[in-house]
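Consortium newsletter contribution from the modelling node. Members have asked for a concrete example of what our holo predictions look like. Here is one, prepared for the adenosine-5'-triphosphate complex that several groups have been discussing at recent meetings.
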Amino acid sequence: MTSAIVAENLWFRYPGSAPALADVSLEIPEGQFLALVGQNGSGKTTLAKHFNGLLRPERGRVEVSGTDIDGRATADLASTIGYCYQNPDHQIFAATVFEEIEFGPRNLGVTEDEVVRRTGRLLDLVRLRGEADRYPFSLGRGQRQKLAVASVLAMEPRIVIVDEPTTGLDWQGGQAMMEVMAELHRDGRTVVIITHDMNIVAEYAERVVVMANGRIVADGEPADVFVQESALREAFLRPPQAFRIARERPDLFASSLTVTQATDALRPVSVGVAAGGEA
Ligand SMILES: Nc1ncnc2c1ncn2[C@@H]1O[C@H](COP(=O)(O)OP(=O)(O)OP(=O)(O)O)[C@@H](O)[C@H]1O
Ligand SMILES: [Mg+2]
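And here is the predicted structure:
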């Protein structure tokens, strides 16, 4: 099976700073839902920007869908790999919401009918249909975040990287955004999210890669990574609360990762108590 992304021994340094990436290697299979986590400044965004050539490594190489991207322009990669900026305002540039979304596919030479179809579908998906004619910078932060994601998805890339998709969104908006990510994953796309939210990792990611000081310090399924205490300490991360409680009372919660799983694990117990009429 082809890998979506292969990064080999990447080194990168911003001028005058310590290395932001120090020998990072990572292989992401096609169709995987991966979360990249780590403290502020650990190198997550820097790594993600290497995947589509926004940044180029000092040493090392990157392959996307089996092809070395050295010498390939980021714009040429946009239909294969979409990167959504951590700050949507670094991405947004058009005069209206509609134009922002249609720009990508139009630029790729997609037919007019198809451009209109995609734009309409995405406006519905991120619930911005009513704002289609508005000036993007007059929207709230959460709406700008959704617009930035929609304009990346409009190019229908097989690989989608979203840098902190739920920042600026309230709980409901965050859930809706993650449902969009989950749908892309169900559709067979490779999804990489960068997040600080361990509940999101537990709920959605098949694999979590932990960064600290420009290096990968843990990599695996969330349940396996959440027990790696020294790596988590190095990255200043805490597993989700449901997971921590479940570890203290495996008799009650089994191996729950999420609140939903913990509640489900507990249900037979509470039903038993009610039926036993202990009160
Ligand atoms: N444009 C830049 N110029 C100089 N240094 C930078 C620049 N961008 C990032 N850095 C530095 O590189 C390191 C890695 O930063 P990066 O933005 O990749 O971290 P991050 O894990 O994405 O953090 P956050 O969670 O805050 O987004 C940090 O030390 C940061 O200060
Ligand atoms: Mg970042």
